[in-house]
Batch of 3 targets.
Target 1
Amino acid sequence: MENFIVSARKYRPSTFDTVIGQKGLTTTLKNAIREDKLAHAYLFCGPRGVGKTTCARIFAKTINCDHLTPEGEACNECESCRAFNEGRSLNIHELDAASNNSVEDIRNLIDQVRIPPQVGRYKVFIIDEVHMLSTAAFNAFLKTLEEPPAYAKFILATTERHKVLPTILSRCQVYDFYRISVGDMVDHLRSVAAKEGVTAEEQALMVIAQKADGGMRDALSIFDQMVSYSAGNLTYKSVIDNLNILDYDYFFRFTDLFLENKTSDCILLFNEILSRGFDGGNFIGGLASHLRDLLVSHDAVTLPLLDVGEEMRNRYQEQAARCPQKFLYKAIRLCNDCDLNYRISRNKRLLVELTLIQLSQLTSDDADDASAGRRPAQLKPIFGTAQPAAPASLPKNSTQPVVSIIPNTTSTTKAPTEVQKTQKVQGAEVQQPSQPKLPQRSRLGTVSIRAKKADAPPAETPTNNFPDGETNRTPLPQEGKENVPAPDKPFSEEDMQAAWRTFAASLPREDIATAGRMNALLPHLEEDGVTFSVSVANNLIESDLRKKKSAIEAYMRKELQNSRVTMEIIVSEAAVSARLLTPRQQYEEMVKENPNLQLLMSTFDLDLV
Ligand SMILES: [Zn+2]
């Protein structure tokens, strides 16, 4: 069998010019060498596999070369260059700090620094993963790094710059290596493929480059792997199959389905993906990236951010042109939400499917409002009726009469019936014969509320202005001729309390806290027979109720058929002080409830702090 050399080693660049994707940096280094302006220490930062060690070696070779080319490159022919290329040069020392991070290792290195080079001009010390050195090793190294002999040059490399001590950073010239772009990688892979006699589809190389995520070493090792799998013929199909990558064609198809609002096709296509063994989380991540790529393709300014080949670029631009920008924003947000929730979701498949449903409805006609993007359009009617205009939203000081309707929600259907029953019993003798069942029923269904100046005394409200009857009869024109203001009826405290509870029950869901507070309170009817008072424990509840005051009063007036009903809110001193017990008082209250507490205290000789 032929001796196989991995491509990453075989095609390792030997000059600055052949380093991929770090043009600016290599030019700077070349210039520094040519002009003989060498620092004594360099720090190369950047992700793995982007050429840090390679550049360090080229640098070491170049500064020792006897016949520099006019461009400042090593000649690769002199004795020194050959020694470097064959790996037998004594002027280069490499230390992998990941595995040699002790003080002892650094001392050995420092010993080497003391010996001047026998051949050539410079000794170069490369310390890889320098952030892994122990603090003691760092400190041992610091002195040497600060004042090295003129023939010693240090090149420190790290993937995690933030972990390098500031004392080291400040003594080095720092170079940042960037991720290699997909385009650069594809170019290099193509040239390697050509040298190796491998036929390769452009798309196949692109997938490899994307998978390598900016690291050339990874790209080349994936390339080697794929070449051996596919027997020298790299096709897009063979690469995505072997790398278990979801064909990006799927994402194009999904986007088309979204735009056509084909919800069921989306679900079926997703099922196909799952049945091929792909993970839903990866799928959503891929879909989000695709939508992001479409977004950047939308605008010529952001187009350079699209890191794909020419053919793909056209495809992206074509689809992006058909996507409204608003759709893309919303879609990316939906995918992102799904991605965030995916890990914690108990039904991951459903989560993805739900997201797909939402995505496929983003461009449907009725989804084009503020709430779209958060919930699917088909759910809107349900939410639309479940959240009526809350009485709280009525302007408190509005002088204009505002009429709002509280629909009869399921939770309240029962309660008003009870109220009505009591009313019938209580007010049997005053019940108007001209108001039989129909208006009574309609009153159950809708309740009219008039907001007026919160502080206006009820007596000032003229009886004939009260909307009772008016709004009830609006939907029932046959009642119109009976538009006579009803006289105020007397009511009992029980009637009033029942109406209070009915109002609480009719509050929409967002007012659930207020409803709870109202249920916990028991209003009392004052002696005047029309004012009822509520004692509350604190100002918070008071202000909460005060916001609802006009709505409550309007409701009570209508329910109790008395236009003079007024609510008073009293912040009860007793209630307040009851909440402000001292620890001792609290303890006594607790003992009252559970006398064993006292035993516990005495047994363990405890005291209140
Ligand atoms: Zn040379």
Target 2
Amino acid sequence: MSKFKIGFFGAGKMAEGILSAIVEKDSVIMAEKVDARADELVRKYGVVTTDDVKGVAAAAKLIFLAVRPQDVDVVAAEVKDMLTSSQTLVSIVAGKTLAKLRKAFGRKVKLIRVMPNLALRAKAGMCAIAPAANTPARDVAAVRKILAGAGETVVLKEKHLDAVTALSGSGPAYFAYMQEAMVEGGVKLGLERKVAMLLAGQTMFGTAKFLRESAMDLGAFIEGVCTKGGTTAAGMEKLADPAFKRIVASTLAAAAARSKELA
Ligand SMILES: NC(=O)c1ccc[n+]([C@@H]2O[C@H](COP(=O)([O-])OP(=O)(O)OC[C@H]3O[C@@H](n4cnc5c(N)ncnc54)[C@H](OP(=O)(O)O)[C@@H]3O)[C@@H](O)[C@H]2O)c1
């Protein structure tokens, strides 16, 4: 095996997010077919690229599977016979179960599933890690150490990954949608869009930061902002319609159901 310790099947958005967490980027090899994208990765990060997943399978000890769910079987067919018991495959693919991955990639390779989110790219990601039963703890610790470079990690049983996918995996889109709704509301009240973006974005960021750091109870926090007879209380009277939480719950349920379907 060559000097490459970490490899990637797929070099898209999430692969780049994980890459940002890796300290020794010159020990990374990524499979990328599109020349312009490969050149960009080499220039920005100093990684090595190959146009073929087999090049990664032959060279890396720890490999992230970061292709879209519909591309997994094509990649697996190419590398299955090459992977050995000294290699670890870390799949970030939504929905694909350890059982399905085992079938696709063969019995030898050690398996770990990770559900990350796009906030990795701002080094504030959330990664849930679910190892296969026979994957050694030191491999799980190594993956956790890498991912901790780009945010929070938690080790969970695989049965929770559909819920994780729905909540933190897809969550960035839902929070962005809330921000968009706040921006549109601000614009309707006469603010410039650019100003409304700043106000909504910084408020979302600051609230999240405060709540994480203080670990304050959410109900108590909301109550604290809602001065009796004040402006926030008037706003919350609209938002606290039971339909709002029902919509959020059904949003997560739909995402979790899709995660199950993707298996
Ligand atoms: N996006 C999210 O927020 C998020 C969150 C959690 C988990 N995930 C999971 O992360 C995975 C990747 O998502 P993404 O958003 O990073 O997608 P993406 O940006 O589309 O990246 C996927 C990459 O894989 C490449 N690829 C496909 N087949 C390949 C092959 N045979 N050999 C080499 N490269 C190949 C694609 O190249 P081409 O475009 O040229 O085909 C593309 O660059 C998905 O399975 C998804 O379920 C995503």
Target 3
Amino acid sequence: MNILVTGGAGFIGSHTVVELIAYGHTPIIVDNLSNSHENVIINIEKIVNQKILFYKQDCRDKQKMDTLFSNHQPDGVIHFAAYKSVSESVDKPLLYWENNSNSLLTLLEMTEKYETPFFVFSSSATVYGDPEELPLKETAPRKPSTNAYGATKQTGEDMLQTLCLTPHSKTKGISLRYFNPIGAHPSGLLGELPLGVPQNLVPFITQTAIGLREKLTVFGTTYPTPDGTCLRDYIHVLDLAQAHIYALTHLTKINSPTYDVYNIGTGKPSSVMEMIQTFEKISGVSLPYVLGPKRQGDVASCYADVSKAKKDLLWQSHFSLQQALIDAWKWQQSLK
Ligand SMILES: NC(=O)c1ccc[n+]([C@@H]2O[C@H](COP(=O)([O-])OP(=O)(O)OC[C@H]3O[C@@H](n4cnc5c(N)ncnc54)[C@H](O)[C@@H]3O)[C@@H](O)[C@H]2O)c1
């Protein structure tokens, strides 16, 4: 299938492009490079050993997107392009609404106009807010979001759902709710490129280990978890990338209008302290860290029930936490 990958030069998008090719599909990347670099395209080409179709353009540019849909008639869209910093979205909510919602709206308009059969949307476990029951099932309620980023993911899911479930809809859709993507491509050619101070634990760990940051702060040690630090569901980005191909394949088997949501995680929680200790073991580096207060907005525990994805999409994660950290560390070292 021809698959339009918006945000395909980004962290998750670039790994998904590699996987799409491995499964015999033809990706078409659209990215405005607002949070990525053209080198990523060159590195994807090195890994897959072929030329990649890449358009440096903005998903909000209706005219250009129309031309692209008209020229390529994609069979499916995987929509990654969005701003993704929770804290930035607290400071600049309208920036997030403007980019995340208008990009999606433009794509859905094109999807409707060109009757694109399949659409996969990048959602997030953040739509659940502070969970009442763990592991999190897709049936858990979505809580009102405390930040614009999370709110754009909730409305993004709703926008796709309403389009897919209109009686005349030609588009079948899935929202994938990612837990915590980590790791990098084992080649050391692709990975996460956080701008400024990383918001996520693993890039902070690897940047501290390589000497870019003086020390790591463990935010909160009195949570109701086995060691008092937060529990999260860390998933290797290549496992996450594969989930998109399984989601597309699943949609090809359904003959009526459909929309659904799936958790994409490992189902296995790991604490911040476990992450530090595992990283020290795989890298041989002793991490300088201090224990600090809780961070506002952090929930104690968040991990997925992944049985629905396993049953319907026939997908499950394979990479270990150790492997994800080995790959993240290799990526950090290659950036030197
Ligand atoms: N990384 C995570 O922890 C995480 C967790 C849950 C959900 N998500 C979602 O997954 C998606 C991908 O995340 P990522 O980590 O790969 O982010 P990323 O920033 O690395 O990739 C996003 C890409 O989209 C591009 N982009 C942004 N706005 C654009 C626009 N208007 N037009 C064209 N390109 C645009 C950026 O240049 C970037 O290359 C995002 O929607 C994000 O919200 C990410």
